[in-house]
């Protein structure tokens, strides 16, 4: 079995959640390893990459892309090259925080609004007291603020940089500033995970997760940040993804 499956040209990892965490932990524990860019891609991002040259470039340069969405799992199965399970940004964040608590890893959190950022950081410090909080900053900053934020991240040199500015913006921002952030060992986007950790958004109940319906729970109950597209508008991409990957031949 190959290590990845291509869905609409995006090479998705076929590692399990456990295997992905082990891979990332190895990267974090390396000395002078350089920045490892992980992308957690769902059907919306996969479809968007078809008409976005910059996103295509980012995908080609990424170190690992994981299937963050049941649609990717179903598309891989339809292709006859199944992935074992979804690997979501939220699950990876919690697993890395738990392991970081044991090994003393440092984290920097960039994104969401100021109040949620503060509350998420406070909750993480309470739940994972041995994790080092290298720093944090909300995601509603201007171009004039960027040099100071980048300097703060570079100075603190976190093991893990968590981006919560929405996809694909988080990955585009990281790609733009990658050379300036070489002191970071691992960076990836987590969508609205900090909203959940802070308590602003309630996590999907177990039955929704079991039925792979977290996306529907978010659609119905999670607030949308100012400046972001309506989740109902974003879900309009899903029928196109289904057609491209499961109905139309040759994909």
From TrEMBL:
It comes from the Bacteria. The keyword Magnesium does not apply. InterPro entries: WecG_TagA_CpsF. Keywords: Glycosyltransferase, Transferase. One of its GO terms (molecular function) is hexosyltransferase activity. It holds the Pfam family Glyco_tran_WecG. The keyword Transmembrane does not apply. This is N-acetylglucosaminyldiphosphoundecaprenol N-acetyl-beta-D-mannosaminyltransferase.
């Amino acid at each position: 079995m190959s290590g990845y499956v291509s869905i609409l040209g995006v090479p998705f990892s076929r590692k399990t959640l456990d295997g992905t965490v082990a891979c990332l932990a190895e990267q974090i524990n390396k000395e002078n390893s350089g920045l490892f860019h992980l992308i957690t891609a769902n059907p919306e991002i996969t479809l968007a990459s078809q008409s976005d040259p910059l996103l295509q470039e980012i995908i080609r340069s990424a170190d690992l892309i994981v299937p963050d969405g049941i649609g990717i799992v179903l598309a891989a199965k339809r292709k006859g090259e199944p992935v074992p399970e979804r690997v979501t940004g939220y699950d990876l964040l919690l697993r890395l925080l738990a392991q970081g608590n044991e090994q003393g890893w440092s984290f920097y959190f960039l994104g969401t609004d100021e109040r949620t950022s503060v509350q998420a950081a406070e909750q993480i410090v309470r739940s994972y007291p041995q994790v080092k909080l290298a720093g944090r900053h909300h995601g509603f900053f201007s171009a004039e603020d960027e040099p100071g934020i980048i300097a703060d991240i570079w100075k603190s040199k976190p093991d893990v940089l968590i981006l919560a500015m929405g996809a694909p913006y988080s990955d585009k921002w990281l790609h733009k500033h990658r050379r300036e952030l070489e002191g970071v060992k691992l960076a990836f986007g987590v969508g609205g995970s900090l909203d959940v950790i802070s308590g602003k958004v309630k996590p999907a109940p177990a039955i929704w997760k079991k039925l792979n319906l977290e996306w529907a729970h978010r659609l119905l109950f999670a607030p949308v940040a100012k400046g972001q597209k309506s989740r109902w508008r974003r879900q309009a991409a899903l029928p196109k993804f289904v057609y491209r990957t499961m109905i139309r031949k040759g994909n």
